[in-house]
Amino acid sequence: MYIVCVAACPTGIAHTYMAAEALEVLGKERGWEVKVETQGSTGIDNEITVDDIARANGAIIAAEVAVEGMDRFEPLTILECAVADPIKRPDAVYETMMHLINNN
Predict the structure, then answer these.
(1) Cβ(29)–Cβ(48) under 8 Å?
(2) Catalytic (active site) residue 81
(3) Taking every annotated instance into account, which residue ranges of this chain make up the domain PTS EIIB type-2 (predicted)?
(4) Considering 3, 4, 7, 9, which one is annotated as catalytic?
(5) N or C: fewer beta carbons within 10 Å in the chain?
(6) How many domains in the chain?
């Protein structure tokens, strides 16, 4: 399973990168391949490509601000959640993503 993710918070500093790390850990623990794009104070890092989207099973958008380029995720099953959710509630993020993928 390949999941693309975006992490973004209002200041684009701590929570953005904490959520990105939490999503990477979640992926490893659950056997997912994960690519996490951050949209932070320094701009976009680790940008998700058209090829990433073409092979992805779904997208997790963990954000408290508008995500740049949101329309590129339209073909995917998308879970939108608070930036803190992957940090504080990784099991809920996993279960919700799996439920969405399995029911689409």
Answers:
(1) no
(2) no
(3) 1-99
(4) 9
(5) C
(6) 1
Q: Tokens in use for 101? A: 């993928």
pLDDT digits over 21-62, tens only? 999 999 999 999 999 999 988 889 999 999 999 999 999 999
Q: What is the DSSP string of 28-84?
A: HHHT-EEEEEEEETTEEESPPPHHHHHH-SEEEEEESSPPTTGGGGTTS-EEEE-TT
CATH number at residue 50: 3.40.50.2300
Domain that holds residue 83: 2-103
Q: Tell me, rounded to whole angstroms, the distance of Cα 42 from its chain centroid.
A: 18
DSSP 104: -
For residue 10, with 0-12 CB atoms within 10 Å meaning exposed, 13-18 middle and 19 or more buried, which class applies?
exposed
Buried b / exposed e over 69-98, threshold 16 CB at 10 Å, is eeebbeebbbbebbbebbbeebeebbeebb
